[in-house]
Design goal:
The chain is α/β, with parallel strands linked by helices and 322 residues long. Helices cover 33% and strands 20% of the residues. The strands form four sheets. Strands 2, 5, 8, 9, 10, 11, 12 and 13 form an eight-stranded mixed β-sheet that branches. Strands 1-7-6 form a three-stranded mixed β-sheet.
Length: 322
């Protein structure tokens, strides 16, 4: 083969390989939301540094899950997406939907899916599915089974590398103050063990209170801005920890949980001294997300909140290390 033909062949091969990468490139499961929070930018910039959830497990505490869904039957390098499951209502390992349950099958998708070219925030993570109650639209009377689910996480977080908890239920009420319940001790225990726990604030456009359990101490409350623009809506109060764009705060919280996993890995890989930001790792991570987030003013309440900017949070921990 002549030099000219060899050169042309190599050029053509390069073009074909480049097109193949474009065609086969994974896409964000929530394109508008991930663009606004610069999650996709974070994937690109830190692709050679971060593993985007590998080695971490996210516990999904909700109303059960249909484990036969193909999204949850995938494997990556031999690692199953669903690492473990537990039902704290029945006390067994089968978290299937019972009664009115429906929500837990899909709540992990924004944070964790890695299926057919669609990716969640921390797409290489694994998940632990905990059925903690009958339906995600709950009541404080569900506190005992939720507490049992959280206790299971306390007992097993080291064994299964659980770093993050998506506490997904909402009671759809406007709580201006915490509601004393038996989950409080469990939430405190998880915070002390550096496990991130957050919950959705609710979806009724309340301006004076948010749902339980998001209103509880040691649980970060995640609110929402409209997808595509920084306009706060849905339930909020002074208890809101962070805003994330989504059509419902359950999705906002799911994205926030994935973001916490990315930031945790960023802190570990960079060697950033998080103790200057908080007395424990979850509080430090939230402080970083808040200080690097985008300010959003709420005209209805006169309050300012912070909206997640994933790339800014990661840049902060990597550039602050000397």
């Amino acid at each position: 083969m002549s030099f000219t033909k060899t050169f042309l062949f190599l050029v053509l091969l390069t073009i074909v390989m480049g097109l193949s990468k474009v065609i086969n490139a994974a896409e964000p499961i929530l394109p508008s939301e991930f663009r606004l929070t610069r999650i996709t930018d974070s994937w690109e910039k830190y692709s050679s540094i971060l593993t985007f959830g590998k080695g971490q497990t996210l516990a999904l505490v909700d109303d059960g899950c249909k484990l036969s869904m193909p999204e949850w039957n995938t494997k990556d390098e031999g690692r199953p997406k669903v690492l473990i499951s537990y039902d704290s209502v029945d006390g067994d390992n089968d978290p299937k939907h019972e009664g009115r349950g429906y929500h837990g099958s899909t709540i992990g998708i924004p944070s964790s899916v890695n299926y057919k070219g669609k990716q969640g925030v921390a797409y290489n993570n694994q998940i632990a599915i905990i059925r903690g109650l009958e339906c995600c639209h709950c009541d404080v009377r569900d506190e005992k089974t939720l507490a049992a689910g959280l206790q299971w996480i306390l007992d097993n977080h080291e064994k299964y590398h659980i770093t993050t908890v998506n506490l997904a239920p909402v009671d759809d009420k406007e709580h201006a103050e915490p509601v004393r319940s038996v989950i409080d001790e469990k939430l405190s225990g998880l915070r002390k063990r550096n496990v991130w726990v957050s919950a959705p604030s609710g979806n009724h456009n309340f301006t004076k209170g948010i749902s339980w359990p998001a209103c509880q101490p040691d649980c970060f409350a995640i609110g929402a801005v409209k997808p595509g623009k920084d306009e706060i809506y849905l339930d909020r109060s002074a208890k809101i920890s962070l805003l994330v764009p989504a059509s419902a705060t359950s999705s906002s919280n799911a994205i926030a949980c994935g973001a916490a996993m990315l930031l945790r890995e960023g802190i570990e890989k960079s060697g950033y001294d998080w103790k200057m930001d908080g007395k424990n790792l979850p509080e430090a991570m939230l402080a970083i997300m808040q200080k690097t987030g985008v300010k959003v003013h709420d005209s209805a309440t006169g309050k300012d909140y912070r909206r997640l900017d994933m790339l800014a949070a990661l840049n902060h921990v990597f550039t602050k290390v000397k």
